[in-house]
Amino acid sequence: MSDHARSRIDELAADNERRLTEVYARLMALGHHRAQDLAAHRGEKLEATQRWLDEAEQDNRLFAVEVDGELVVPASLLDPELREIAEWHAVLEVVHQFRGPGWPRWTWIDLPNGWLDGGVPSEIIQSDPQAVLRAAKRKLESLRG
Fold first, then answer.
1. What confidence tens digit (pLDDT) does each residue in 67-93 have?
2. Handedness of CA 12, 13, 18, 22 (dihedral sign)
3. pTM of the shown model
4. What is the 3-state secondary structure (H, E, C) of the chain?
């Protein structure tokens, strides 16, 4: 491989890393709940909340993303009382099959996407959960090729 090709690959990798960092920062700014804050709200030890999060993720009811060694849950997955939003359950069963850890899932639920004609799933889930579910299924079909 030529020096020029290696240099171009390095540039593209750095650009991709910068874009991912920007997306992650945007998602974090949209709102999230740290596991330790959820534990305090629930009146339990952090370990108990982490078990709840693990079980909820295994049951496709929630997901968490690790940020700087802490688990965070997208705010859009919980109601104002920090309870699970039932409308997400069927959708998350599909979304959990997307490739990668929680970041691609979070990106799909909280940013505009073409599967909903530019709509944001977290803004549509309460009014039309079936549309969000159909969009998630179409996205999964496209990933499977």
1. 888 889 999 999 999 999 999 999 999
2. positive
3. 0.84
4. CCHHHHHHHHHHHHHHHHHHHHHHHHHHHHCEEEHHHHHHHHCCCHHHHHHHHHHHHHCCCCCCEEECCEEEEEHHHECCCCCECCCHHHHHHHHCCCCCCHHHHHHHHHCCCHHHCCCCHHHHCCCCHHHHHHHHHHHHHHHHC
